[in-house]
Amino acid sequence: MPKQIAIIGLGLIGGSMAMALKGFEEFEIVGVDTDPATLDFAAGHGVADRLTDDAGAAIAGADLVFLCLRPKGIVDFLHAHRDDFKPGALVTDVCGIKTAIVDAAAVLPPQVGFIGGHPMAGKETSGVFHADGKLFQGAHYILTPRPGHRPEHLDLLRRVAAHIGCRDVVETTTQKHDAIIAYTSQVMHILAVAVCDDPDLFECRGFEGGSFRDCTRVAALDVPLWTQLFSMNAPALTKVIRDLEDNLRAYRLVLERGDTAALTQKLAWSADRKRRMNLE
Amino acid sequence: MPKQIAIIGLGLIGGSMAMALKGFEEFEIVGVDTDPATLDFAAGHGVADRLTDDAGAAIAGADLVFLCLRPKGIVDFLHAHRDDFKPGALVTDVCGIKTAIVDAAAVLPPQVGFIGGHPMAGKETSGVFHADGKLFQGAHYILTPRPGHRPEHLDLLRRVAAHIGCRDVVETTTQKHDAIIAYTSQVMHILAVAVCDDPDLFECRGFEGGSFRDCTRVAALDVPLWTQLFSMNAPALTKVIRDLEDNLRAYRLVLERGDTAALTQKLAWSADRKRRMNLE
User: Fold this and answer.
1) What dihedral do alpha carbons A255, A260, A265, A270 form, nearest 10°?
2) Which residues contact B33 (CB under 8 A, 6 or more apart)?
3) B256 → closest Cβ in A191, A238, A273
4) How many CB atoms lie under 10 A from the CB of residue A187?
């Protein structure tokens, strides 16, 4: 019998992960979902090698389990299924916050490993209908191994990351992940929705260029998912929002004073920081 | 002798315009710049049919003149060369603000037409070295004709817009242009630089996804250009920045209160507005 990977939750990320994992070593990919329409679509599009709505049976046979539910769904699943995982298995997740998830994984018995994961890819759509086996290509794959993790588990996830096309694996702590992600991802989504709250939004058709399309792209977000991600990381996120309000206000005050020398100096400083970031 | 189009200033936009205009009807494209390195590069890359550093001679022979300088450069050029344009010619510009430019064009004699223009395309680089004849493909081309403009002049610019691949021509007033562009373009650039002011910027390598790359893409901006664009549209821009600060604060306060029901409601409202915008 081949080794098995169970994907719990065939949404955009779970479905994409199942498709991207196709052909990974000798593993059979088992997709798990409770929604009949999702299972029908997955069956019709070859999303996984095998499909089931029985999560308990799937994880009992799986050597590697990906939890691809919303954050609260993952916490609930870990509590409900703590004794159903196969001894020696590795459990991981793909969630955009890590402290709450890794804390919840403390309920697992010692013979089941857990390493939190966050492949930094997404789309402004949701559901298996938009899943894409190439979604992770070029993305960072962040992992938050706990003290005492088994090296072969970490090695397995590194091979997964390579197979699905990630550019690299970044190891960090859950706390550092959540603080930085509040800045690099969460506040970008807050910005995108806040821009769309402007009363003139619908006046602007015909006047938008690339910067507007890029900044607001992620605004049509999955509301229940992002409500949970934001709420479960609120202290870090509110700090970043406050800092951004301050940085915007500083630009506004210079403009209101009509101080073009100070404006030039501020723009030169910020633009230089961006150039030094040198992102591809 | 063929009709002539003079492009004054072969920067990113002027150079791209010269290249995009290649083959436009029977016109000869004359590129004008005072920088020897720019003229050398333009000569080596076939940017225009003819090149010169003599703006006065170029505009004396041109039926259509594109002013592709920075905003203050355009204002100064109009004053310095008010009597040098060919009678019956159309003068236009490609500047991201319109009121200050069109006001300055009042110095032109009545036999020279002026229609303000803003093809909404750009890049986070500058200079002829980055010019691209495809830059305008799919962009909106905004025009601000003055009362009493000659219909054949407007028609000429519409044919230009079609030739360079713009998706449409949007006619508006200079005031409306400047108010909306403060929102759809200028504040996107302020946001991008303000995000780069975060002290954690350089900690975030390895943690950035598509939303961060998209939002900060335009931050490495041309400092003298944007200092002028922001300063010359400061009243509209500061209003939009203040509104955005308010919208961000509203999200922060809901998060600080821990009110997930209100957060869900706010996100659903904003995301729905974005979906209704339905930008390609």
Assistant:
1) 40
2) B9, B10, B14, B39, B42, B51, B53, B128
3) A238
4) 28
Chain A contact set for B100 (CB, 8 A): none
Task: Look up the pTM and report it.
Answer: 0.89
Q: Is residue A241 a contact partner of residue B251, using CB atoms and an 8 Å limit?
A: yes
What's the DSSP call for residue B167?
Answer: S
Mutate to test the interface with A, among B72, B175, B188 (most CBs of A within 10 A): B188
Q: Torsions phi, psi of A167, nearest 5?
A: -75, -30
- Would the CB atoms of A207 and B181 count as touching at under 8 Å? yes
Q: How many whole angstroms separate alpha carbon A220 and alpha carbon B274? A: 6
Q: What is the pLDDT of residues B208-255, one digit of tens each?
A: 888 898 889 899 999 999 999 999 999 999 999 999 999 999 999 999
pLDDT tens over chain A, length 280 residues: 789 999 999 999 999 999 999 999 999 999 999 999 999 999 999 999 999 999 999 999 999 999 999 999 999 999 999 999 999 999 999 999 999 999 999 999 999 999 999 999 988 788 999 999 999 999 999 999 999 999 999 999 999 999 999 999 999 999 999 999 999 999 999 999 999 998 889 888 889 888 898 889 899 999 999 999 999 999 999 999 999 999 999 999 999 999 999 999 999 999 999 999 876 5
Contact list in B for residue A143 (CB cut-off 8 A) is none
Q: Which residues pair with A64 in a beta bridge?
A: A5, A90
- B142 CA to chain A: closest CA distance, Å? 8
Site from B167, B178, B193, B263 to mutate, A interface, most A CB atoms within 10 angstroms? B193
How far does the CA of residue B58 sit from the closest CA of chain A (Å)? Answer: 31
Of residues B126, B184, B208, B183, the one with CA closest to residue A210: B184
What is the enclosing helix (H) or strand (E) of A183?
Answer: none
Closest CB to A251 among B194, B219, B220? B194
Q: How far is B66 from chain A (nearest CA, A)?
A: 21
Residue whose token pair is 């990351």: A161
Q: Inter-chain contact B215–A215, Cβ cutoff 8 Å?
A: yes
